[in-house]
Amino acid sequence: MKKIKKVVVLLALFLGFITCITPALAAGASSSSNSTSSSAVSGDELAKIKANGKLVVGLSADYPPLEFTKKINGKTEYVGVDIEIAKQIAKDLGVKLEIKNLSFDSLLVAMETGKIDVIISGMNPTAERKQSVDFSNTYYSGGKSFLIMKGDENKYKNKDSFVGKKVGAQNGTTEYKLIKSDVKGATPEGLSKLSNLVLDLQSRKIDGVLMDSLIAKAYAANNKQFVAIDSGIEVSEDQSGVAVALPKNQPALKTAINKTLGQIKKDNLIDKKYVPQAAKYMETVKQSNGMLNYWNYFAKGVGYTILITVISVTAGFVLGTLLALMRLAKSKFLHAIAVCYIEFIRGTPLMVQIMFVYFGIGALIGSLPALLAGIIAISLNSGAYVAEVIRSGIESIPAGQTEAARSLGLSQGKTYRYVIIPQALKNIWPALGNEFITLLKDSSMVSIIGVTELMYQTQLVQTTTYKGVLPLFITMLLYFVMTFTVSKFLGYFEGKMKHNE
After folding, report:
1. Do 370 and 39 meet the contact criterion of CB atoms below 8 Å apart?
2. Where in the chain is the domain with CATH 3.40.190.10?
3. Where does it primarily localize (predicted)?
4. What are the residues whose beta carbons fall under 8 Å from the beta carbon of 32, sequence distance 6 or more?
């Protein structure tokens, strides 16, 4: 019983360590990486928004001219038609606007779990989506176009030209479904980010990308490699219109949003002001899209990547050591807990774990910042793998070492501390180093929940500059520099250990 109490205390301390050390760090993250919503969508959402003093809008900022990013005075700003609409809605509600940038296919989940209040991201109010969320009146309507490579105009004229070809579309969008239903004989290729689809198009992995006509024309206007052609697909109002998505059964919030949209339509602000302003931002980006102008994007990404790695490595090592000792304990209860945890964590993908911690657990315990959720998920995942490494190291020490230490009067705890663990650490150091390097690279997965680490920043640069390959190449070099530095650092201490033998 005493052992069980000790384990419980240690687990509590571990969780307390993660919880206490990261909120202050999370507070310094950008607005796109903070969770400020209520834990679940319920009650009068309009009253909650006004009580909180802010409107949290979810979007996928890779859809120019509706929503994208722009470097203004050295800072990343969200710009575009949808951003201006979101600003006006927040202004009319008398609250501040907060933007949360997520992948498009995560937006509905984010709203259902209370991470965001509404979605303003070029979303079509389809019948299928209306089953889970409500929509405002439409504020924009357009057709669908294919984005193709320049020089392919003679090959591709409309939807009938893509028989036997690969056509890309963003996951969770109406366009992806239209490829299946209307582009006969084509193979749909889906990705979460539109910028990655454009990159696939540039590398000839796909033959075209289906998107909203306004978006296709924006890409073609800002990159001479592309051409936008009309798809020839007939779309209904719910497939071509764009509206604000909001939680079910919120009449007061819906009325307030429709009032703002009605005034915007009456004043014709989208055509007169918002689209020209977005076009101006896109043109200035085109004129200054050299990578040197975006060094601070990469620097910020590297900073957060290192931050996540250092905290997760420390927490993962503590948890891994505890789990290893539990698995080696004589107590069947402790052994069973450790085995179940390790096997479950190793048997599920890290990406799923990150999303579960953020969207699932985060919805139960209230406000959980994306940075904190990412660190917790990676730490818990790393702990399972580190536990097996440490266990194998301990079991590699001959039993005679333990017997000799105990015969000299050392307790079991001191035997582990002064005899077993130091020797095991020497044996497992290379394996631990490999786990730390893997963790550094795996930290890129937290970008799916909006944490501004290196991969997230790379996607912003891709979207802002309309370049796909060069930002990825720079990111590869930065990851190599970080992993190479860590390898040399670990190698130095490995050499010191061998020298002291």
Report:
1. no
2. 34-140+241-288, 144-234
3. membrane
4. 99, 100, 101, 450, 452
Tell me the per-residue pLDDT of 19-78, one tens digit each, with 9 for 90 and over. Answer: 444 444 444 433 333 333 333 455 689 999 999 999 999 998 888 888 888 877 767 789
Q: With cut-offs at 50, 70 and 90, classify the pLDDT of residue 287.
A: low
Q: For 253, what's the count of Cα atoms within 13 Å in the CB-facing half-sphere? A: 25
Domain 34-140+241-288 has CATH 3.40.190.10: yes
Q: Using CB atoms within 10 A of its CB, is residue 81 exposed (0-12), middle (13-18) or buried (19+)? A: buried
Peptide bond into 65 cis (omega under 30): yes
Residue 474 CA to chain centroid, in angstroms?
Answer: 20
DSSP 68-137: EEEEETTEEEEESHHHHHHHHHHHHHTSEEEEEE--GGGHHHHHHTTS-SEEEEEE---HHHHTT-EE--
Instruction: Report which DSSP code applies to 143.
Output: -
pLDDT tens digits, 398-441: 877 777 777 777 877 777 777 777 777 778 888 888 888 988 98
Instruction: Give CATH 1.10.3720.10 domain extents, the chain.
Output: 2-25+293-499
Residues in the chain: 501
CA distance 280 to 70: 11
Please answer whether residues 37 and 79 qualify as being in contact, where contact means their C-beta atoms are separated by less than 8 angstroms.
no
Please give the Cα distance from 76 to 414 (Å, whole number).
53
For 477-486, b where at least 16 C-beta lie within 10 A, e where not — what string?
A: ebbeebeeeb
Give residue-wise pLDDT tens across range 264-282.
Answer: 999 999 888 988 888 778 7
* The CATH number of domain 144-234, selected from 3.30.420.10, 2.30.40.10, 3.40.190.10, 3.40.50.1820: 3.40.190.10
Put simply, whether the predicted model's pTM sits higher than 0.85 gets the answer: no
Which tokens sit at 257? 């949003």
CATH code of 2-25+293-499, in short, is 1.10.3720.10
